[in-house]
Amino acid sequence: MSNLLARSAAAVSIWVAGGLSGSAQAPEVFATTPVVQPSALPAPAADGDRAVEIAELRARLDDIESSNDKRTKAEADKKAPDALKPTVKWTGQLQADFYAFDQDEANRARFGDIENGEAFRRARFGIFGDYGPAEYRIEMDFALGGRPSFLDVWTGLNDVPYLGRVRVGHFFEPFSLERYTPNRFTTFMERSLSDQTFAPARNMGVMANDTYLEERGTWAVGFFRSDSDVFGDDVGDDFENAATGRVTYLPWCECEGTQYAHLGIGYSLRGTNDDQVRFRAQPEARIGAANPNVPFFVDTGNIPASSFQLVGLEAALVNGPLSLVSEYFLTPVNAIDGDDLLFHGWYAEAGYFLTGEHRPYRRKYGIFDRVMPHREFIRDSKDKRVECGPGAWQLAARISGLDLDDGPVRGGKIVDTTLGLNWYLNPYLRVTANWVHAFVDDAPGDGGESDADVFATRVNFDF
């Protein structure tokens, strides 16, 4: 083969140099491409050299993998002690309120001149976490007078056979959809007349709760000492015990929780403190948390009684941006002198998100959850650019009534109408404006009618 290539190369050279035989013209050069002799090509690597290269590459990969394994093990060893400790997470809430009042002459004569003002309604800070199935929460409020006050201060255990979750400490009794829903997720600045009058708040006790039918429903039952102070303290032989329970169910739930119907019932059997009980309400307005700066428009005074009951009926419908909520409260009182008494109250509210959001639902407890705006007002995108959106805008209206007249007790009657506007700048920052018109149909004691208007705004941030 090499001889053939050599002869071909020589023939080409002769043709280029001399041209065709007998031609008078100078020779033309058509190509000058050199012909490479096979002996000039590099020889392929020997099998032994290739094996050495492969071995070196494998050694390098082994070194890299070994280094990564050592780094991973070091990180795991560093985190191992932390895995044996309870987790710690932070929570907080700040609410700044601004109020203005307008009273008619009868209302001012009966309750005095209500001064305008501003105050921190809530200023809270706390921690919570878990260790396996055990969990805890310690949250304090600094807006109350004196030393910081206990809010949710409890410990609990999850996955308890037959009981689900068991909690011991200071926390909300399981009663009322509006009361059991955290205030940061309620529609209006203050809860309704009936809720603030009848629904129990946080008390010392023990409670078990769980879900059923694949979280279509919830149940909760607890036993409490309901006359403890804001620090959970109670000393004495004469105290008020309470047994409280609540059951909820979702008869309709579609579209991943954007459409659902909620039904619930709550019941509480309660003793009285020193054989007395009292029911009263402010006109869905409260300046600060330390003192009742807004007078009580209805008030039964102290009623001699050995016990009383609370019955609450709940209904809610959420269909996309539209939400409808209503509750009815019935309170029979076992009076010591004379016939037993019966008081009642109710409210109905409607809300609509102009920007298309909905009220989320927390199935674990049968309550409303945090609103998530589709487009936040201001946020940083992944590429560090500032993006602006409308946030979430909600219009809301509520009417609530309370009747504390029965037999010889003339606590009064009141109806409140509230219009509200909520602007959720993001899931954690919210601005609220409320207008409340309070109509006292039968003032406590001497009766009489009067009106008052409340104009209020709130800035709320929580995490």
Top keywords for this entry?
single chain, Porin, about 15% helix, about 475 residues, alpha+beta
Summarize the structure in short.
The chain contains five helices and 23 strands. By secondary structure, the chain is an alpha+beta fold.
Task: Outline the structure in words.
By secondary structure, this protein is α+β, with helices and mostly antiparallel strands. It has a single domain, classed as Porin (Beta Barrel), CATH 2.40.160.10. It contains 5 helices and 23 strands. The strands form 4 sheets. A 16-stranded antiparallel β-barrel has the order 1-2-3-4-5-6-7-8-9-13-14-15-20-21-22-23. It has a two-stranded antiparallel ribbon with strand order 11-12. A hairpin with a 2-residue loop joins strand 20 and strand 21. The longest helix is centred in the N-terminal third of the chain and has 37 residues, at 47-83.
Q: What CATH first level would be assigned? A: Mainly Beta
Strand percentage lies at: over 45%
Topology-level CATH name: Porin
Specify the structural class: alpha+beta
Q: What is the averaged pLDDT score?
A: 87
How many extended strands?
Answer: 23
> What is the ordering of alpha helices and beta strands?
HHEHEEEEHHEEEEEEEEEEEEEEEEEE
Give the overall shape, derived from the CA principal axes: elongated
Unreliable stretches (pLDDT < 50, length at least 5) are 1-36
Summed up, the domain count is 1
CATH arch. level architecture: Beta Barrel
What's the tally of helices?
5
CATH superfamily: Porin
Q: What is Rg?
A: 39 Å
Query: Within the largest sheet, what's the order of strands?
Result: 1-2-3-4-5-6-7-8-9-13-14-15-20-21-22-23
Biggest pleated sheet = 16 strands, antiparallel, barrel
